[in-house]
């Protein structure tokens, strides 16, 4: 059980780093977000994480 907890903690840390990198990449394309857009992004982040990793592989159409 303890090993499983450590594995999960490591995965969470890895995903947080990946999330930060993706946010930086997004800023390169969209520029700084207004406060409203940023709060929407923050509020929608939790449900995506709860649905599982398969949802994370889908990228929006850049066009």
Question: Strands, helices and their partners?
Answer:
Elements: H1 2-30, H2 35-51
* Count of helical stretches: 2
SS-derived structural category: mainly alpha
Number of strands: 0
- What is the residue-mean pLDDT, rounded to a whole number? 74
Percent helix, as a range, is over 70%
Low-confidence stretches: none
| Envelope shape | elongated
Beta-strand fraction estimate? under 5%
Give helix and strand order, one letter per element, not per position. Answer: HH
| End-to-end Cα distance | 46 Å
Radius of gyration from the CA trace? 14 Å
**Sheet with the most strands?**
none
Describe this structure in words.
The protein has 63 residues and is mainly alpha-helical. It has a domain at 1-27. Helices cover 73% and strands 0% of the residues. The protein is elongated. The model has no long low-confidence stretch (mean pLDDT 74). Residues 28-63 are annotated as: Disordered.
